[in-house]
Specification:
Structural class: alpha+beta
CATH class of one domain: Alpha Beta
Order of helices and strands: HHHHEEEHEH
CATH superfamily of one domain: VSR Endonuclease
Oligomer: single chain
Number of helices: 6
Largest sheet: 4 strands, mixed
Number of strands: 4
Shape: globular
Distance between the termini: 19 Å
């Protein structure tokens, strides 16, 4: 389990609209010489096909965790935007308890243990993935400032362990496996 690191949460908060000129400029152009507004051509037809099929929600790791939580009697909302100040949509959300869970894909969120950097269009991908991580940290900061508890897990983490951590955060029993 990873939760927004204290270093990333100690930065001054972004404006509540989340769209300061610097942030918007960084997101669209990238920080270096890479323009993130236009993605490069796919390196092959197979790669293009694979990326086009990539879903935004209901991924296999999300479904595995949801099945385990449901079996324990835990109910939740799925793919919910918790507040107006961020565009982020939580994978699992409990608005009343102000708890939001993100199950991050290792590639898209740059997992330090198994995320990899593509070789084709390497500069563009490096900047794109770094921008995703910056966006995640901004999201954590905005939500935390509004009183949300943010839990982040990697897709490779054991679903039972993830469900245990979520149940603990909800104050529920960890049994019923």
């Amino acid at each position: 389990m990873t939760v927004g690191s204290p270093a990333s949460l100690s930065r001054p908060p972004e404006p509540l609209d989340g769209h300061s000129p610097v942030v918007a400029d960084e997101q669209s152009r990238g920080v270096g010489d890479v323009d993130l507004r236009r993605s490069p051509a796919a390196s092959s037809v197979a790669v293009r096909s694979r990326f086009r099929r990539q879903g935004r929600r209901d991924t296999a790791p999300e479904l595995a965790v949801r099945r385990r939580l449901h079996a324990r009697g835990v109910r939740y909302r799925v793919d919910v935007r918790p507040c107006q100040e961020t565009r982020a949509r939580g994978d699992l959300v409990w608005k009343g308890r102000r708890l939001i869970v993100f199950i991050d894909g290792c590639f898209w969120h740059s997992c330090p243990s198994c995320g990899h950097q593509p070789h084709a269009n390497a500069a563009w991908w490096a900047e794109k993935l770094a921008a995703n991580v910056r966006r995640d940290r901004r999201t954590d900061a905005v939500l935390t400032a509004q009183g949300w508890r943010v839990l982040r897990f990697w897709e490779h983490e054991e679903p039972d362990a993830v469900a245990d951590a979520i149940c603990a955060a909800l104050g529920r029993e960890l049994s019923a496996r």
